[in-house]
Each structure stands twice: as C-alpha cells, then as structure tokens.
Specification:
Blueprint (H helix, E strand, L loop, with lengths): L1 H12 L5 H17 L8 H15 L14 H14 L4
Helix pairs in contact: 1-2, 1-3, 1-4, 2-3, 3-4
InterPro entries: Colicin_D_immunity_dom, Colicin_D_sf
Organism: Pseudomonas fragi
Pfam families: Colicin_immun
Length: about 90
Amino acid sequence: MSLELIQLAKKFADGGLSANAFADPYIAKWSAERDANKLKDDNANVSECASTIFILADCYNPDLDRRKSELDEAGLRAEVKATLSKFKLA
C-alpha cells in the first residue's frame, strides 16, 4: 500500500505537485494507512522511506516565520528527493 505514498512523493519530487498540494494529503494518507495497519504490508525499505517522508512533510511550513527545524517548499522537495534516492526508490 505504501507504494502509493512513494508515487505521491515522486510526483512532488519531480515538480508535479506544489508543497501545499503534497504535504497535507501525504500526511493524511500515511496516517490512514498507519491506522489501518497497512504499513506493515510493504517491505521494510518502502515502509521506512514512507515514514521518513511523513516526518519531512510534517516539517513543511510555507510561512516566512518558520523555525530553523521547518522546511520551505524548496527544502522539502530537496529532502524528499534525497530520501527517495537513499532508499533507492527514485
């Protein structure tokens, strides 16, 4: 099931979605899969990648007064790309 999350992340990483169109839907879908206990259905690599991207999406803040620990759109896109590459899912 998390492969759908990975596809959503790839679409964002490739510029097909804005950060605003990506972050909240990704968080909602990941949370729904977690609550339905579906994350365990995928291999550990996919599950860990999806969970890492969830954390990144949660750190997204479009406001100019963001904390250093928060990401703007460019930062989120770069981190999602790096995470997909790290897990060899790019």
